[in-house]
Design brief:
One of its GO terms (biological process) is nucleobase-containing compound metabolic process. Belongs to the DNA photolyase family. This is Deoxyribodipyrimidine photolyase. Keywords: Chromophore, FAD, Flavoprotein, Lyase. Its cofactor is FAD; (6R)-5,10-methylene-5,6,7,8-tetrahydrofolate. The chain is globular, with a radius of gyration of 23 Å. Helix 5 links the parallel strand 4 and strand 5. It has three domains: 124 residues, HUPs (Rossmann fold, 3-Layer(aba) Sandwich), CATH 3.40.50.620; 89 residues, Serine Threonine Protein Phosphatase 5, Tetratricopeptide repeat (Alpha Horseshoe); 204 residues, DNA Cyclobutane Dipyrimidine Photolyase, subunit A, domain 3. By secondary structure, the chain is of the alpha/beta class. The protein has 22 helices and five strands. It has a five-stranded parallel β-sheet, sandwiched between helices. It binds flavin-adenine dinucleotide.
């Protein structure tokens, strides 16, 4: 057997089944592809490229030290694989499963066809809790648990390289904004620091943009690029909970542990229904906003100049840093969807480029959830003024990001909140009351709703009338 390990969003040495399997081969190499389809895709930003390459560089060194060459190639998957196959005659292609955007789904189908035609055996391993293929959600949580508790895959002592590793220069990719430390060692240090103490204030810190940047784990880019496996994060968290005598730390860690499940729970939705990247979960919502897209409003929102200080502060923080906490992400989307009545797709693409941690399964599910198009969750309209009162009571955060507030340079509100929300509620509640929408909601819940959440079974009523922003911890109950 000659093996090629295709590294995708799994840029690590540890807990890596494809790399471990390749250690059994008589000859092996690894490949990381800089794909034009990725660079062209509307979700991709230079920060993603720069971060990925900063993860690839130390990984290539670590693999080379154990005899495995990591080739970095620019090009589409099939022609690159074809050329490498012609040169090295690999018999097996090893990779992790990917739950990605449409372009990666199409590319995987093309690669599968090429493998079949060429006689190369392509083996893919799961690396999260996402189950492929999945008939329904029964037993999903138990499977997630079993996967996360399975022993981590050991790092092989070495590989028999198809050729000696060479340190050719990596492509240059200037970042569009400052990046956090990249690579497996940085990811591990961040995880260790969090579970050893920083998680103590997690539950208190996560909602306010003043405290969340330090109080949250900040592991999301590492999970998105795979410098850590979900299993590593889960096991480190559970080990810390078991061993710490500090009850406050254990409490914080338990809150964090729950969110790790959400990661995979949301990704599973895209795996099960890839089209939700492009269209509404609830088809009853088709046509609701599509024909009302106001580009000027959209651009004002993107620029952080809506005249709603909390919204603008969050947008400006996000644009400057590539990260924002969950509650404020939700508020930005709710504002775009309800106050500005914008369909979620374009705002979602814009945000995908801003989020260093862009993870399609979470992202598109959340975009739709916060826009009220999933058909099953409570409509959640965030009041920017209330979020400011609750999470930035003395205005420190807003002043930091909107220094011109209170001067003529700051714009007037782009919409009248009361009128905009009244219109939004009327349209959405009117729609939800229809028999078709209710029937469809039952089907969506059967397919995508969490069985552990206590959601009503099909046929039993969902409420769907609340307009308050509740606690983040109730989020899973909603979708
Ligand atoms: C509109 C919108 C879009 C989002 N897009 C993304 C995205 O592209 N990528 C992404 O990783 N997260 C996304 N999230 C979820 C969440 O905001 C981020 O995971 C979190 O802010 C990342 O910071 P952290 O790692 O410090 O999180 P922590 O609070 O420390 O949580 C740890 C991990 O748990 C998972 N997690 C936490 N909250 C959620 C959640 N609500 N849903 C699913 N998983 C969660 C993430 O993997 C996260 O890294 C989105 C949320 C919203 C409202």
């Amino acid at each position: 057997m000659k093996a090629l390990v295709w590294l995708k969003r799994d840029l690590r040495l540890h807990d890596h089944a494809p790399l471990a399997e390749a250690a059994l081969a008589e000859g092996a190499a690894a490949l990381w592809l800089l794909e034009p389809a990725w660079r062209r895709s509307p979700e991709c930003d230079p920060q993603h490229l720069a971060f990925a390459l900063a993860c690839v560089a130390p990984l290539r060194d670590a693999l080379a030290a154990r005899g495995l060459p990591l080739w970095v190639e620019e090009g589409d998957a099939v022609p690159v694989l074809q050329a490498l196959h012609a040169r090295h005659g690999f018999t097996h292609l090893f990779s992790h499963e990917e739950t990605g955007p449409g372009w990666s789904y199409d590319r995987d189908r093309a690669v599968a066809a090429w493998c079949r035609a060429t006689g190369v055996a392509w083996h893919q391993w799961p690396q999260t809790g996402v189950v492929r293929p999945l008939k329904n959600r029964r037993g999903w949580a138990g499977r997630w648990q079993a996967r996360m508790e399975a022993p981590q895959v050991a790092v092989p002592a070495g590989w028999r390289g198809l050729e000696p590793p060479r340190a050719t220069p990596l492509p240059l990719a200037p970042a569009s904004r400052p990046l956090p430390a990249a690579g497996e060692a940085a990811a591990r240090a961040l995880l260790d620091d969090f579970v050893a103490g920083r998680a103590r204030g997690y539950r208190r810190a996560l909602s306010s943009p003043l405290t969340a940047a330090d109080g949250c784990s900040r592991l999301s880019p590492h999970l998105a690029f795979g410098t850590l496996s979900m299993r590593q994060v889960h096991q480190a968290t559970e080990a810390a909970i078991r061993s710490t005598p500090d009850r406050a730390l254990a409490h914080g860690l338990r809150g964090f542990a729950g969110r790790l499940r959400w990661h995979c729970h949301f990704m599973q939705k895209l795996e099960d229904e890839p089209a939700v990247e492009f269209r509404n979960f609830a088809r009853a919502c088709d046509g609701l906003r599509e024909d009302h897209f106001d580009r000027e409003r959209f651009e004002t929102w993107c620029e952080g100049r809506t005249g709603f200080p909390m919204v603008d502060a969050c947008m400006r923080q996000l644009r400057a840093t590539g990260w924002l906490n969950f509650r404020m992400r939700a508020m930005l989307v709710s504002f775009a969807a309800y106050h500005l009545w914008l369909h979620w797709r374009e705002p979602g693409l814009f945000l995908a480029r801003q989020f260093l941690d862009f993870e399609p399964g979470i992202h598109w599910s959340q975009m739709q959830m916060q826009s009220g198009t999933t058909g099953i969750n409570t409509l959640r309209i965030y009041s920017p003024a209330k979020q400011a009162r609750d999470h930035d009571p003395d205005g420190t955060y807003v002043r930091r990001w909107v220094p011109e507030l209170g001067t003529p340079a700051y714009p007037k509100p782009i919409v009248d909140e009361r009128t905009a929300l009244a219109a939004a509620r009327e349209r959405l509640y009117g729609l939800r009351r229809t028999a078709e929408a209710r029937q469809e909601a039952d089907a969506i819940q059967q397919r995508h709703g969490s069985r552990k959440s206590g959601l009503p079974r099909a046929g039993l009523q969902r409420r769907g009338t609340s307009v308050k922003a509740g606690k983040d911890t109730r989020q899973q109950e909603l979708f």
